[in-house]
């Protein structure tokens, strides 16, 4: 489960620090709210989660995620999921998507080292996704098997 929070990670120029204090604060807010983490947004566009990348499966069965920028970490698990989609012939779109697009997506997926391909079922208390489970499981199984094969070597 997730909650939405404004992405304020780069808004604290007055604090002379290079740490991710605002991400930690957002993560603490998530825990206090009883959800796994927060999905962050700037304006109307989703950037990433507090400690993972976020993808959606669109109505056209495309895998969509925000492009790498100063607002999005190029995570290793993110790269694995993008590669899996390409190998499986699933179209990958790296462009910003809105909060509304996320809520109406067929599936929402978060990726991180501890969660290679985890589906999201609830955001801000509203049920989401669950409309492309076969595609989601195909991606998840490929990512997990590919990761396990590479780490066993």
Features of this protein?
alpha+beta; five-stranded mixed β-sheet; 33% helix; 153 residues
Low-confidence stretches: none
**Looking across the biggest beta sheet, what order are the strands in?**
6-5-4-7-8
Major sheet characteristics: 5 strands, mixed
**Average pLDDT:** 89
Please report the distance between the alpha carbons of the first and last residues.
34 Å
The percent of residues in helical segments reads 25-40%
Counted by DSSP, the helix tally is 4
The best one-word shape is globular
> Could you state the order of secondary-structure elements as H and E?
EHEEEEHEHEEEEH
Give a topology summary.
Blueprint: E1 2-6, H1 21-33, E2 37-42, E3 45-49, E4 53-57, E5 63-65, H2 76-87, E6 92-94, H3 99-104, E7 107-112, E8 115-119, E9 122-123, E10 126-127, H4 133-152
Parallel strand pairs: 1-2, 5-6
Antiparallel strand pairs: 2-3, 4-5, 4-7, 7-8, 9-10
Helix pairs in contact: 2-4
